[in-house]
Amino acid sequence: MKSRIAMVLGGALAACALSMPTASAAEPPIDFQLPFTCGQEWQINSYADDHAPALDLVREPDQVGTEGALLIAPADGVVNQSFEHENAGNMIQIDHGNGYFTTYIHLQSRSVKEGDTVKQGQEIGRVGKTGETSNGHPHLHFEMAIDADNDGRATWGEVGSERVNAWFDGVEYGGIGKTWRNVASKNCDGDPGPGPDPEPEATTLAYTGDKSISNGSDAEFSAVLKTEDSDEPVEGREVTFELGSGDTAQTCDGKTDAKGTATCTVKVADQALTDDATVSLAAAFAGDDEYKKSEDTEKLKLQHVEGRSYGLTAKVPLPLLPVGIDPTPDTGTVRTAEAETKSPPCAQGVSAVVLNADALCAKVVTSAGPSSATATATVADVSIGLPGLPVIGVSGVTSESSSSCSSAKGSVSLELTVAGKPVSIPDTPGFEVDLGIAGKLVVNEQIPVTDADQGLTVNAVHLTTPAGADVVIGSSTSSAHDCA
Q1: Any idea what DSSP says for residue 7?
Q2: Burial of 247 (0-12, 13-18, 19+ CB in 10 A)
Q3: 3-class SS of residue 438
Q4: Which of 36, 201, 245, 349 is deepest in the core (most CB within 10 A)?
Q5: Any residues with CB less than 8 A from the CB of 195 and at least 6 apart, and which?
Q6: Among 71-75, 134-138, 200-204, 420-424, which is the least confidently predicted range?
Q7: What residues pair up with 422 in beta bridges, in sequence order?
């Protein structure tokens, strides 16, 4: 941290500084005190090789607490110089009378101007690291000198001025060399003013709002701002919430209450559905003079729905001519957080050796705010004639499954005949029609979707046989995900 201000000035000013002699002097007739707040401890080093009798002062060896420290007048005087120099940075010189003056270099700021009268203990500036020769290290470069010509204006660097060892509280600080010496300020009689601004207090911010949001609905956000050390709530500060990122980001602001809680609402959330169905949420307090900034992030779940429907599917392993019918028509799986409709063209007819069907349709409709899905399958007529079973006739089939984050429900309507005889169908899920050991026929089969918060698969008719036949008529599935 070696400071060479008086030795590295450049041009004529450097020459003057190099020619400035140094001398020891008797104790000054002025009661000079350390130019810092009463009771503060500082460390002094004079770098005896080329720096003495100028001094460098820091709060600690690692300079913690040095930058921005309050600088006060060591004795009464008149400001002789106050300006900014390329090498020295901000500097002040005070004429204390009796031929004595003091100089302060590398200051962060100056509180006085040339010609101002100052009293011992009065604020004159702040310690800093300005000027090229500070080498970026916060410290005070201090010089005490005598105006040998006694012309009443001993300008810094002027030929004829003698730098002398500094005196603080009646003690001479000369020949210190490169070993730091501790000294406490007894500059206690004056009023230094407000003193250095206190260090802002560290804070923590914790998100406490919704963990799941739905497109098309309002999203409620909240976070609690507290002090880091004492865990006390911080009131009256603004917290900014940002949902999503980039061009689709949505923001709102809230001010903390007496409990440190800030709340705000994003009206009508509108975010893209990703593979993991999450949306980033960032809460941030920007900080101010009293409190340091803090932030918190959360991955919110984006509510979404899925749906699928188809008219008919069949697998019948006949010995000579097996029947295989893929889902027809089929919406495929619809996964979305938006409002949309998926409706492939209806199939006019399906014909196989043991099965005939007419007018098959499938549709999935979703909505947002809140999210929901409704899957519907319809079939006009179906006739099934499997070996070993009576002919089964089904007509007017409608299968529907509806799901949201609050519920999932299903319904079926149809007319059924077995061997030409009508079968009465109760309004209860999973009704089994007796076919003996030759097969199993379930009407209004309802199966929960296990990997969803809410979900249901509804098959209007499901026929199976011990020989491996599997026929489904009118299948609809809906489910709701990431609800909480």
Answers
A1: T
A2: exposed
A3: helix
A4: 36
A5: 37, 70
A6: 134-138
A7: 417
Q: Model's pTM, two decimal places?
A: 0.62
* H or E element that contains 12: helix 11-19
Task: Assess whether pLDDT exceeds 90 at residue 148.
Answer: no
* Per-residue pLDDT, 61: 58
Rg, the chain, Cα only: 43
What tens digit of pLDDT does each residue of 223-251 get? 999 999 999 999 999 999 999 999 999 99
**d(C-alpha 161, C-alpha 51), whole Å:** 16
| CA 419 to each of CA 20, 66, 134, 286, 311: distance values in angstroms, whole numbers, following the listed order | 124, 100, 104, 78, 23
Q: Which residue has better confidence, 153 or 435?
A: 435
Burial 77-102 (b: 16+ CB within 10 A, else e): bbbbbbeebebbbbbbbbbbeebbbb
Cα 340 → chain centroid: 33
| pLDDT band for position 142 (cuts 50, 70, 90) | very high
Whether 112 and 92 have beta carbons less than 8 Å apart is answered as yes
CB 148 within 8 A of CB 160: yes
| Residue reference for tokens 């003091």 | 102
Compute the distance between CA of residue 255 and CA of residue 263 in angstroms, rounded to an integer. Answer: 7
CA dihedral sign of residues 49, 181, 58, 195? negative
Q: Residue 149 in 3-state DSSP?
A: coil
CA 467 to chain CA mean position, Å: 61
How do residues 320-377 score in pLDDT, each as one tens digit? 889 999 999 999 999 999 999 999 999 999 999 899 999 999 999 999 999 999 999 9
- 140-147 and 161-164 beta bridge pairing: antiparallel
- Of 152, 104, 150, the closest CA to residue 127 belongs to 104
Neighbours of 211 (CB within 10 A): 13
Structure tokens at 127: 């310690």
In DSSP notation, 324-371 reads EEEEEEE---EEESS-EEE-PPPEEEEEETTEEEEEEEEEEEEETTTT
Helix (H) or strand (E) holding 11: helix 11-19
Name the DSSP class of 132: G
Q: Which helix (H) or strand (E) holds 14?
A: helix 11-19
Between CA 156 and CA 82 the distance in angstroms is 11
